Amino acid sequence: MDIVTLSTFAIPLAIAAAIPGPGIAALVGRSLATGFWPTLPMVLGLVAGDLSYLTLAVFGLAFIAQGLGTFFIIVKWAGIAYLAYLAWKFWHAEPRALSQVTEAKSNSVVSSFLAGLAVTVSNPKTITFYLALVPTLLDITKITLVSYGQLALVVFVVVSGVITCYVALAAKARSLFSKPSTLKRMNRVAATFLAGAAVGIATKA
To answer: How many angstroms separate the CA atoms of 8 and 166, rounded?
Structure first.
């Protein structure tokens, strides 16, 4: 897989990972309560959840594409519509302060990891995002273990990098995430990029 394709995959992935949602709320809540290092297992749990959904999207869509060509086109355009919907949703969202999130008391590595995994697995938006993104970038009928491995590496680096920044900022600056106005501005910047991604993908499709 060439660097252009991987970059095109990484950019909207980074935007989606940066959008404040349940995962970011849980991470920031834990980091505010326990600090940077105790929160890292939760980061790994969230990334593991993303990798699980990437796997389902890649190989599930490959199966669909091989037998249902017309339906696969519908899936692609449904994904484009979903990206546009996300842009609209986050533009109008009224986020609450992440510092208000209730944090679990357990600080064990295992419980922290499982908490992160549970947050991602229980969020249907995650699998929908991968279903929207993967078929726009890949010839899904020609997916190989090598190309899957490249995508998985991008997911690990991008998602862990973005959300670890949140954890570090929360640990260093507690007041930053106590202002919904700050999160609202972040949402609108992300919405603008997501809308642009939807338009670009629609043009390509």
So the answer is: 23
d(CA 138, CA 142): 8
Residues of the chain with pLDDT below 50 are: 98-106
Q: Is residue 179 a contact partner of residue 70, using CB atoms and an 8 Å limit?
A: no
- Cβ 182 vs Cβ 176: under 8 Å: yes
pLDDT tens-digit map of 30-77? 777 677 888 899 899 999 999 998 998 888 776 665 555 566 567 567
Q: What does the chain look like in DSSP terms, one character per residue?
A: --HHHHHHHHHHHHHHHHS-SHHHHHHHHHHHHH-SGGGHHHHHHHHHHHHHHHHHHHHHHHHHHHH-HHHHHHHHHHHHHHHHHHHHHHHH--PPPGGGSPPPS---HHHHHHHHHHHHHT-HHHHHHHHHHHHHHS-GGG--HHHHHHHHHHHHHHHHHHHHHHHHHHHH-GGGGG-HHHHHHHHHHHHHHHHHHHHHHHHH-
* Residue for token pair 């950019």: 11
Owner of token pair 């297992």: 41
